[in-house]
Design the sequence.
């Protein structure tokens, strides 16, 4: 074999190796951008962010339990303002009607 043939065969082998690496890289890239993989990555990121948020809130609650309790209580009263108002109106009417019955 002549040195030119040896160099040619080495170049062909090198080209085949490079082609195989290119195909592997293309398949890996295709796997990384597949819709299922992107969906799973998004789910994982959302879950990690939610867990970080829960841990942060937990730490803040431990730092300031009274302030958090007051804020949650105020929010609860705000959210239940209509049922509470309706209850107080019914109680007022019952109490008011009871005084009218006894007064007559």
Sequence:
């Amino acid at each position: 074999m002549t040195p030119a043939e040896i160099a040619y065969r080495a170049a062909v082998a090198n080209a085949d190796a490079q082609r195989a690496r290119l195909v592997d890289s293309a398949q890996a890239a295709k796997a990384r951008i597949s819709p299922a993989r992107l969906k799973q990555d998004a789910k994982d990121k959302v879950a990690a962010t939610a867990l970080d948020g829960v841990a942060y809130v937990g730490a803040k609650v431990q730092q300031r339990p009274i302030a958090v309790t007051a804020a949650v209580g105020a929010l609860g009263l705000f959210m239940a303002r209509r049922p509470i108002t309706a209850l107080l109106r019914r109680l007022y009417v019952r109490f008011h009607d009871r005084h009218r019955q006894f007064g007559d």
About this structure: The chain has three domains: 1-33, 37-63, 65-104. Helices lie at 3-32, 35-63, 65-79, 81-103.
